[in-house]
TrEMBL record:
Name this protein carries in UniProt: UDP-N-acetylmuramoyl-tripeptide--D-alanyl-D-alanine ligase
Annotated ranges, domain Mur ligase central: 106-294
Record organism: Algicella marina
Residue span, Mur ligase N-terminal catalytic domain: 24-94
Pathway assigned to this chain's UniProt record: Cell wall biogenesis; peptidoglycan biosynthesis
Catalytically driven reaction(s): D-alanyl-D-alanine + UDP-N-acetyl-alpha-D-muramoyl-L-alanyl-gamma-D-glutamyl-meso-2,6-diaminopimelate + ATP = UDP-N-acetyl-alpha-D-muramoyl-L-alanyl-gamma-D-glutamyl-meso-2,6-diaminopimeloyl-D-alanyl-D-alanine + ADP + phosphate + H(+)
Example of a GO biological process term: peptidoglycan biosynthetic process
InterPro entries in the record: Mur-like_cat_sf, Mur_ligase_C, Mur_ligase_C_dom_sf, Mur_ligase_cen, Mur_ligase_N, MurCDEF_CellWall_CoF430Synth, MurE/MurF_N, UDP-N-AcMur_synth
Keywords, alphabetical: ATP-binding, Cell cycle, Cell division, Cell shape, Cell wall biogenesis/degradation, Cytoplasm, Ligase, Nucleotide-binding, Peptidoglycan synthesis
Amino acid sequence: MSLWTAAEALAATGGGGVANWEATGVSIDTRTLQPGDLFVALAAQRDGHDFVAQALEKGAAAALVTHLPEGVDPHAPLIFVPDVLEGLARLAQAARARMSGKVVAVTGSVGKTGTKEMLRTALSGQGATHAAEKSYNNHWGVPLTLARMPRETDYAVIEIGMNAPGEIAPLAKLARPHVAVVTTVAAVHLEAFENVEGIAREKATIIEGLEPDGIAVLNGEIGTSDILVSAAQAGGARVVRFGSGNYEASLRSVVVKGLVTCAEADLNGQPVVFKLAAPGAHLATNALAVLAAVEALGADLALASLALAHWAPPEGRGARWRVALGPGGIDGHVTLIDESYNANPLAMGAAFEVFVGAQPVDGVGKVRRGRRIAFLGDMLELGPEGPQMHASLAEHPAMAQIDTVHCAGPLMKRLYEALPEAKRGECCKTTKALAKKVPRLIDAGDVVMAKGSLGSDLAVVVDAIKKLGDATDMRQTGESD
């Protein structure tokens, strides 16, 4: 099905070029490009113009460029624009303008991607739903998501992130959401902000993109809630607060058992019961925000509640793996909790609480006692307070139930030094060095968690753990701890 005709793309971008093609998708990466895609030659780590010839060879319908790339026929299907990123943004504007459905945008210091995926799950059964791939939430990810949006979309879910002041509002204005969700505000990206209040003010700028009569779904439990609410009211938005208190969306009870979370809530006086195929009280809070957004969009709340039972955490954000040791698992197994995609103090604490709810198995390994073992990498972009924030993790109540902590990176060394000697495992300068030691640090019956910021590359530790045996995604098998 056609996503962009040449005439539409030329009109949207204001560019010039050949007008006899149709695109069925939009791509910025020749490694994942599909035949029929419009290739957008963005300049990132490398200039996308260097790959235009390859994109056309792989079947790209056309390419968005600033100039004729080397090795490309002058008569090739190209759109010439002064700036490729601006051209992509104009495609995004046009895609948003031609779409008659509803848009919900999600931001927050923690939980954006998981909440975005919950919204996808909750809405997919109620209409054609389009959502960002992975964490495409930045200055190119948001316009790319919009440019890929089919014109027949009923619900669009747009994730919006930031690293510095002034980034959210332009993306929100591009998305023009009917509903905006702020999951939470926490001490993240403090290198670019003076304090958490500054982060809250930046998150609140998502309100600037709301459509008239828009609705802001805001976390009522956080200390900066008043900043969010004031911004929403000043922008003319209706406010729906969520949390465990007496709010428009109130969480009444949460029960976590095995790999399942069950919750009861009250949404504008209406009782709601829902279940998630993942453990964590914090996930129930995010799910409540999702249901509040679903109601604000005018979708069916009961259907959305039922659909959430099929949601599970994205890769690197709490997914669980059963790693069978020895041929056919004859030597027992290890349970791996993969939290390697992101980390900050709030998310780390929530992960600890889920981690200590997982039960090791005694009597199956060489150690004879199953243990909870954490592999932790640096939490990045925390500013001058970063070292102390790492050290203070030693004081988290859940730490008492964690047997051994292995650390990687200069910041996590501060935690290592703050831990009781009995809990100290390995302390390495890099995650790669720690990954090499994995085989002698884990035994059958252990429950293992790996968590760190994406830039600290805990994924190499996760891969090392999986390679100990036959790794099976527990989301696919329905297994519990």
